[in-house]
Write a structure and sequence with these properties.
By secondary structure, the protein is mainly alpha-helical. It is 70% helix and 2% strand.
């Protein structure tokens, strides 16, 4: 129920504080966000670092829960974050990003607390916070300089795959 309520709240927040009139301006960054998560799911299909179990999730399985997050929460997040990002003053920009990282950390905390997200293979809440601390600036980088974001994403993905020993090159 927490996830469904979170999705509903994120839609309401995006409707209130997001830039729906100009949603196309943010579409490529929304797609970048979703594609990144889809790559995670593809690479870790047989070796998940985290999962969304049912129960306690109301959605039938990890796939449906993940799709719900990808297509409801991610677009809402991007529509608000990029539209409301401060144009000037580095301190305000840093504070704004820190607030968004904190929001992701709180969301993840409740997901883990209620058993809606379970970690595996060395992933932890600390890794999630570290990932959010990288993800938020990467969304901004993609919005401003998409090619740089894609190029920087490659070593990040490779690092995570090797660090967590994800067996993507082995046959079962």
């Amino acid at each position: 129920m927490f996830l469904i309520i979170s999705g509903f709240i994120s839609i309401l927040c995006a409707w209130r504080w997001g830039d729906w009139k100009n949603w196309r301006r943010y579409l490529s960054t929304i797609q970048y966000f979703i594609i990144g998560d889809m790559l995670y799911n593809l690479f870790t299909m047989d070796f998940p670092l985290w999962q969304y179990p049912n129960p306690p999730n109301l959605l039938p399985n990890h796939l449906f829960t993940n799709l719900f997050i990808m297509f409801i929460i991610y677009p809402s997040t991007v529509l608000i974050f990029l539209y409301r990002f401060p144009k000037r003053n580095f301190f305000h920009q840093l504070l704004f990003m820190s607030i968004w990282i904190l929001l992701w950390a709180v969301f993840e905390y409740f997901m883990v607390y209620f058993g809606l997200c379970v970690y595996h293979h060395g992933w932890s809440y600390g890794w999630s916070i570290s990932f959010a601390s990288m993800m938020i600036p990467m969304l901004l980088l993609h919005h401003k300089h998409p090619m740089w974001a894609y190029l920087l994403s490659i070593p990040i993905i490779v690092f995570l795959l090797f660090w967590f020993h994800v067996p993507i090159f082995t046959n079962k």
